[in-house]
């Protein structure tokens, strides 16, 4: 079952994993040490992130390293940008209105 990206990033541990992987590729064992949790628990989080294409595995010898998929995150950021621009426009209009009201007094 493919996971929803919002469900994937709603979990603080998964967000922390993404932050770590944005810096460098890691194996599930190394991630488990950083979070003081079992490898199996980390693997469940990685599975969700992988299903959303936020991380990608790469085999290196006997180890699987997970990489942050910046391209997928960029797609998500681009989707959010349309809302960000709307919010900024509305806040700018509010700032202008408040400035106008303040100067009229």
Which helices and strands occur, and which strands form pairs?
Elements: H1 5-10, H2 12-23, H3 28-35, H4 39-51, E1 55-60, E2 63-68, H5 70-104
Antiparallel strand pairs: 1-2
Describe the fold and architecture:
There is one protein chain. 70% of the residues lie in helices and 11% in strands. Strand 1 (55-60) and strand 2 form a beta hairpin. It is elongated. The mean pLDDT is 93. It has 105 residues and is mainly alpha-helical. The longest helix is centred in the last third of the chain and has 35 residues, at 70-104. The N and C termini lie far apart (60 Å). 15% of the residues are buried. The chain is built from five helices and two strands. A two-stranded antiparallel ribbon has the order 1-2.
Q: What kind of sheet is the major sheet?
A: 2 strands, antiparallel
Assembly form of the protein: single chain
Q: Determine the number of helices (DSSP H or I, runs of at least 4 residues).
A: 5
Average pLDDT: 93
CA(first)-CA(last) distance: 60 Å
What percent strand?
Answer: 5-15%
> Could you spell the SSE succession in H and E letters?
HHHHEEH
| Sequence of strands across the biggest β-sheet | 1-2
Low-confidence parts lasting 5 or more residues at pLDDT below 50? none
Q: What percentage of residues falls in helices of 4 or more residues?
A: over 70%
Q: Tell me the number of strands.
A: 2
The shape, in one word, is elongated
Question: How big is the Rg?
Answer: 20 Å
Structural class: mainly alpha
């Amino acid at each position: 079952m493919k996971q929803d990206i919002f469900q994937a990033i709603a979990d603080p541990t998964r967000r922390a994993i993404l932050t770590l992987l944005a810096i460098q590729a890691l194996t599930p064992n190394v991630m488990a040490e950083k979070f003081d949790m079992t490898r199996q628990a980390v693997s469940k989080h990685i599975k969700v992130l992988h299903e959303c294409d936020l991380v990608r595995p790469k085999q290196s010898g006997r180890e699987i390293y997970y990489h942050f998929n910046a391209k997928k995150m960029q797609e998500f950021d681009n989707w959010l940008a349309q809302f960000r621009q709307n919010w900024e426009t509305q806040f700018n209009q509010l700032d202008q209105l408040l400035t106008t009201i303040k100067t009229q007094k």
